[in-house]
Write a structure and sequence with these properties.
Strand content: 25-35%
Strand order of the largest sheet: 7-8-9-10-11-6-12
Helix content: 25-40%
CATH architecture of the largest domain: 3-Layer(aba) Sandwich
Structural class: alpha+beta
Number of domains: 2
Number of strands: 13
Largest sheet: 7 strands, mixed
Shape: globular
CATH topology of the largest domain: Aminopeptidase
Number of helices: 7
Distance between the termini: 46 Å
CATH superfamily of the largest domain: Gcn5-related N-acetyltransferase (GNAT)
């Protein structure tokens, strides 16, 4: 049985919001196409997929002296493989001027999500959703492909990412304890929405909540967020965390989530940051 977080202090929730994201990305180590480096001072990884969400650096616990060499090491790996890189900077990352150091070597600040958390015992279960909505776990290749297609469409990703997500799911669905779970929302039998649950760092993390534009405004996003959280609550989890876009923020607020921090994202593209070569 995993250790469940029951500390609702702001410091503990900020830590949990960050730690769940870190564990979520580190879980890619189960995928043969990912090379994950999980050291005490930095978590980073590269894959063979040229999309920044699959090539990331997180959880920097660097000193002013070793920060620049560490940044250069990660950039060199991406330069060699011609990969884009996303570097997420949270409130507990160090050094404090990490964002400025990233900008100095060619990263662009692209903003970032609000880190939010909610007590699963008091989350609002009364929000109405369409009566014709059915939410089901993703358990086969066909539904995995549908899930990936909706996520890439809603978040405006290139179509080649679909195959990578399908292949990734084959491996992560088989990991012990199934901490990583996908869900599909069907409206009158038609797939229209997705969500992903990741159980890690003692909390339930929600990712990839995506609703097709033509069916928005009916409470589908709320329902896709709530269903995995209730499943996690039934397994003993007390706290839900997520990273909200501007569009999703009011949806999560209505469920009972509150903002506790920000994760600032910095994007590096091949050809930038030549100082690291």
């Amino acid at each position: 049985m995993p250790i469940i977080l029951n500390d609702f202090s702001k410091a503990a929730l900020v830590q949990a919001i960050e730690a769940n994201l870190h564990a979520y990305y580190a879980h890619l180590r189960h995928w043969p196409r990912a090379e994950i480096h999980d050291a005490p001072d930095l978590l980073w990884g590269v894959t063979d997929v040229p999309h920044p969400l699959l090539n990331m650096a997180l959880r920097a616990r660097l000193t002013p002296e070793n920060a620049d060499p560490a940044i250069a090491t990660v950039i060199r790996q991406c330069q060699t493989r011609h990969l884009p890189l996303m570097w997420g900077v949270g409130p507990n990352d160090r050094p404090q001027d990490l964002g400025g150091r990233l900008l100095a070597v060619g990263f662009k600040h692209i903003g970032g999500p609000a880190g939010m958390a909610a007590d699963l015992q008091t989350i609002d279960e009364s929000l109405p959703g369409p009566p014709a909505l059915h939410i089901q776990p993703v358990e086969d290749e066909s539904s995995t492909r549908t899930h990936a297609a909706i996520v890439t469409k809603v978040f405006d990703m290139p179509e080649f990412v679909i195959e990578a997500f399908v292949d990734l799911a084959r491996y992560l669905n088989a990991t012990p304890g199934r901490p990583w779970r996908n869900y599909l929302g069907l409206l009158a039998g038609e797939p229209v929405a997705t969500a992903t649950l990741f159980l890690g760092a003692g909390v339930a993390g929600i990712y990839s909540v995506a609703t097709l534009p033509r069916v928005r405004g009916q409470g589908i996003g709320s329902a896709l967020t709530l269903a995995p959280l209730l499943e996690a609550r039934a397994e003993g989890y007390r706290i839900g965390v997520l990273h909200a876009t501007k569009m999703g923020f009011p949806v999560y607020q209505r469920l009972g989530f509150r903002e506790y921090c920000r994760i600032e994202n910095y994007l590096w593209l091949p050809g930038d940051g030549e100082q690291a070569s």
